[in-house]
């Protein structure tokens, strides 16, 4: 759970809050229109997630061998931390260089998460997965709120000229704080978490990993229920991820000040923490599937409300609605899937989980970006995402809740 605490600083400060505002301000200084800079950010997110989507199942299959899960996790973690710190040295108005480096940070962050998610089968029993996964997200929101608050204070004090820093320098300091927080609180994960479920090492592991991956793809027809879940997940998590990553860019297009956006996002983290844990507890009582439907329903309301959004107060309401469900729907998706898959092939199957999730993250930002450019309205772009939640909800209705019903063993 401390890794959720550690890497969530990246999720909010880099993916959601300060970096998008920093990038949009730099793009504006370079003469890029607000609609186009939002679109460029969406295209960049799509490219980064496409790259990782291609790598995830291959790396995951290799990492199922004894001792390799931690090594792959560490490799991507180091890439993410180092590239995040390097954001602080890129010139403010070099918007293209910022997007390139942001792509590398995204690959490091999301790549480490492929293997971190797969560790869920190693650290708890199936009956505790919903609660533990939700607690991880809850800890993550609290852990991200602390460095985020420090960054907000630094930025606000620089705006008030109490600190002798420009807004650019204050934002760059935030990137360094994120990298340090991420690195320090990952140490317990590196020292203490071990891979318990694995495939024994054999000769020519890379070649045999590709053969094993090929066999799984060939036999995918035998995993009908699992494929249905992945398809449902593909659609609804697409909408979730797009709203999270594009929220500050959207708010900026509506004319909401950077300071107001940062305060809104900070309180969103605070509110999201207890709700993520609540989702886990309610899943134990009402089942994870029903709680996933609750989350999907909330996000449909968010998309519809976003279309009519006009003021900062509306954005506050929208943010609080998102806060009630963003952690819960992600946490229960992770644990729902973990309970269906064979434990000794967790990395391989989480590779497929991530390929669906990452390809979804390609489609969502592209849908929002293209719609926004065609209509000239960011609100219409967000509204278009409602279709993804409806399709995801329909597909989820056909998914079983146990490994036995799904026709999987292990």
From TrEMBL:
Keywords: Membrane, Transmembrane, Transmembrane helix, Transport. The chain crosses the membrane at residues 39-60, 72-90, 96-116, 137-157, 169-190, 225-244, 256-279, 291-309, 315-337, 349-370, 382-399. The keyword Membrane applies. It is found in: Cell membrane. Residues 225-410 form the Major facilitator superfamily (MFS) profile domain. It is a multi-pass membrane protein. The keyword Membrane applies. It comes from the Bacteria. Coiled coil: none annotated. This is MFS transporter.
């Amino acid at each position: 759970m401390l890794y959720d605490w550690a890497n969530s600083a990246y999720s909010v400060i880099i993916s959601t809050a300060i970096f998008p505002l920093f990038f949009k301000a730099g793009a504006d200084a370079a003469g890029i229109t607000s609609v186009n800079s939002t679109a460029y950010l969406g295209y960049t997110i799509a490219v980064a997630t496409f790259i990782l989507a291609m790598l995830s199942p291959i790396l995951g299959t290799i990492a199922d061998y004894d001792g390799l899960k931690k090594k792959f996790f560490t490799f991507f973690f180091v890439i993410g931390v180092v590239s995040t710190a390097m954001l602080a040295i890129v010139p403010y108005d070099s918007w293209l260089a910022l997007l390139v480096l942001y792509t590398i940070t995204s690959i490091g962050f999301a790549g480490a998460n492929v293997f971190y998610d797969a560790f869920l089968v190693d650290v708890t029993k199936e009956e505790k997965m919903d609660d533990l996964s939700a607690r991880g997200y809850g800890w993550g929101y609290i852990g991200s709120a602390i460095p985020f608050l420090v960054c907000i204070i630094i930025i606000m004090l620089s705006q008030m000229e109490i600190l002798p820093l420009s807004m650019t320098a204050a934002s760059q300091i935030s990137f360094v704080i994120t990298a340090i927080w991420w690195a320090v609180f990952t140490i317990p994960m590196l020292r203490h978490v071990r891979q318990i479920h694995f495939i024994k090492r054999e000769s020519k592991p890379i070649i045999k990993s590709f053969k094993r991956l090929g066999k799984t793809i060939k036999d995918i027809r035998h995993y009908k229920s699992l494929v249905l879940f992945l398809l449902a997940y593909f659609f609804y998590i697409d909408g979730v991820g797009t709203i999270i990553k594009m929220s500050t860019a959207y708010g900026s297009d509506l004319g909401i000040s950077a300071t107001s956006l940062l305060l809104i996002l900070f309180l969103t983290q605070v509110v999201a923490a207890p709700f993520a844990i609540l989702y886990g507890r309610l899943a134990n009582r009402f089942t994870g599937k029903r709680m996933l439907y609750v989350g999907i329903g909330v996000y449909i309301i968010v998309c519809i409300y976003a279309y009519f959004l006009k003021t900062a107060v509306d954005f506050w309401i929208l943010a609080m609605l998102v806060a009630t469900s963003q952690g819960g729907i992600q946490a229960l998706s992770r644990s729902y899937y973990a309970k269906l898959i064979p434990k000794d092939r967790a990395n391989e199957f989480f590779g497929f989980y991530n390929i669906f999730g990452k390809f979804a993250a390609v489609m969502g930002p592209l849908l929002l970006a293209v719609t926004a450019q065609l209509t000239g309205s960011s609100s219409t772009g967000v509204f278009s995402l409602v279709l993804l939640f409806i399709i995801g909800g329909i597909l989820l209705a056909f998914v079983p809740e146990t490994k036995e019903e799904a026709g999987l063993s292990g």
